[in-house]
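User: Hi! I'm working on a homework problem where we have to compare a predicted structure to a textbook description. Could you give me the structure for the chain below?
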Amino acid sequence: MPSTQIQWFPGHMAKTRRLMKESLPSVDILINVLDSRIPISSKNPEIESIAGNKPILTLLSKSSLADPSAIAKWKNHFKQNNINCLFIDSITGTGINEIMPAVREILKDKISRYEEKGMTGRNIKAMIVGIPNSGKSSLINKLAGSKKVKVEDRPGVTLTKQWVPTSIGLDLMDMPGVLWPKFDDDAIGENLALTGAIRDAILDIETLAVVLCARLRKLYPELLMARYKLTEKELDEDMQDYEVFEAVGHKRGFLISGGEINYERTATMLLDEFRGAKIGKITLELPPEQ
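Assistant: Happy to help. Predicted structure tokens:
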């Protein structure tokens, strides 16, 4: 039976924070890439203080993996709070063509001042930041029109800052993806781990998979039942979360000698299918007012 406690080892941010602050004078705007499935947990709480008076455009990536009804609620939340944001997806191309118009709208006064001085055609410079595995590198490659930065479906691939030109009049300063030193809420750490922002190698993935079962039975029971052919009885409130996890392993036939469940194989499958939206389009967080 999997344990119920996850140990976190978030990456330290001091070096990247210094790098960002030192580099801010070189850019016009900061682009903050969040994960559409976890808009709260994927937002670095220090971004606003680091940005100072630089404007911020928030991009919520991987939108094709998120619940459309939740996206609608988040759009309304951001609009009501006057937060500049777009939901995008670098694989499907959703929202990509809206990025440059949004940047120009935010910077329209600054662009007008440049034009008054005869400085037309100047590329806009943006610092692009985001937690590990947020979709930042995929977005940069999409905007650049070629594979300028290394992309892998695991955190911690971008290790230092680099300038990447694009064909849309935007020069991007790519920053390493980092996590902050301390999570105020265990749920934030869980959400980051579930979506792959924390490396699986340093976690107990069986415990993480039980956490996933707990979230899904609460938020998306129909999707969980449909994907793994579970009955209502197997999701009954009397069932423990680890028992739901075990039921999934049984249904998939992930057994070892003696009829015991192969916990590691079941956990790996569950996490992979969640991250690949094979269970369905899922959002783990709604706006605070919801």
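For your comparison, note the following. Residues 103 and 275 are 30 Å apart (CA to CA). The longest helix spans residues 205-219. Good luck with the assignment!
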